[in-house]
Design goal:
Rossmann fold, 2 domains, 12 helices, 10 strands, binds pyridoxal-5'-phosphate
């Protein structure tokens, strides 16, 4: 069962050198649910509530072959008694092409495989109008849950925390989670984002997403001044990883007992660790948001098994 109360706040005593006097906390959203883990439920929660209040049949959404978001949507819809449709990038794929897609089907998701050219149209108004005609009464959610409702759901990651936090570190894909977190921060708190993609235009993406929620441009700029983009921890780009990253993730697991994934959280935790080591965060309270994602390691599953854990 999806249970937000399972997301606890862990304090990692002894992980960092004691003379730095940094209190390191981890928001364990990875514990919310096995499939709808981490930021997935945060992003889906209000989309699903909207479906329920509008009496929609279900959710129609988009994702790549190894999308965490597709599995999470399929599982959440099943649990909430809704139907789900997933438009998958790549018309060469089939329902049994990999474990991620098989899981989607097990949760009752109807998969529709489309070409990369068609996939590129997914956010265009005319394309979405066509989908609404073909699939009436389905709520369309963008890839990665990247909409206003997703962002608002992610605010709760912060509002649930009672500790006084100075710095928040989080991984970034579509920027939905980081924007939600940013909207919930107080002006003295700083957000450090670690994009999983090489060359990702973090600031522009965040500006666009926050802008869509109707926040005035001047306030958006004020909010963005609380953000630091750490764009040097992508390890070669999206889905790429190195032995150094695997070794680091193994070290974290052995020392503190939770797993990271090599696509998002591993890189973000690595980036945070390096920043805390090399720059002065002394005498501060630091929060890492564990956004889950262990499901989505199917692409590197065999290597994960042997090289990481
Ligand atoms: C495990 C995990 N962490 C972080 C992210 C990045 O979140 P966002 O796309 O909201 O920036 C994702 C992608 O959704 C993810 O699957």
């Amino acid at each position: 069962m999806i249970d937000i109360n399972k997301s606890r706040l862990d304090k990692l005593d002894g992980f960092l050198s004691p003379d730095r006097n940094i209190s390191l906390f981890v928001k364990r959203d990875d514990l919310i649910h096995e499939e709808v883990s981490g930021n997935k439920w945060r992003k889906l929660k209000y989309n699903i509530e909207l479906c329920q209040s509008r009496k929609n049949k279900g959710v129609l959404t988009f994702g790549g072959a190894y999308s965490n978001h597709l599995v999470a949507t399929a599982a959440a819809c099943k649990e909430m008694g809704l139907e789900s449709i997933g438009f998958v990038r790549g018309d060469e794929l089939k329902e049994n092409s990999n474990d991620t897609l098989k899981r989607c089907v097990e949760f009752g998701m109807k998969l529709i495989f489309i070409s990369r050219e068609e996939y590129r149209l997914k956010n265009e108004k005319a394309y979405q109008e066509g989908l609404s005609l073909d699939y009436p009464n389905f709520h369309i959610v963008p890839e990665g849950g990247a909409n206003y409702y997703g962002m608002i759901g992610c605010q709760e990651i912060i509002t649930e925390i009672k500790e006084d936090i100075d710095h928040v570190f989080v991984s970034q894909g579509t920027a939905t989670t980081s924007c939600g977190i940013l909207l919930a921060l107080e002006p003295h708190q700083q957000l450090h984002v670690v994009p999983a993609l090489k060359g990702y235009e973090s600031e522009a993406e965040m500006r666009a997403l926050i802008g869509k929620s109707g926040i005035e441009p001047a306030w958006t700029e004020e909010l963005l001044s609380q953000v630091e983009v750490l764009n040097q921890y992508h390890f070669g780009g999206y889905g790429k990883c190195t032995e150094e990253l695997f070794a680091f993730m193994r070290m974290v697991y052995n020392q503190v007992g939770f797993k990271l994934d090599p696509v998002y959280t591993g890189k973000a935790f690595f980036g945070m660790f390096k920043e805390l080591e090399n720059r002065s965060y002394d005498n501060s309270n630091v929060l890492f948001v564990h956004t889950g994602g262990i499901q989505g390691i199917h692409g590197v599953e065999q290597r994960m098994k042997t090289l990481i854990y």
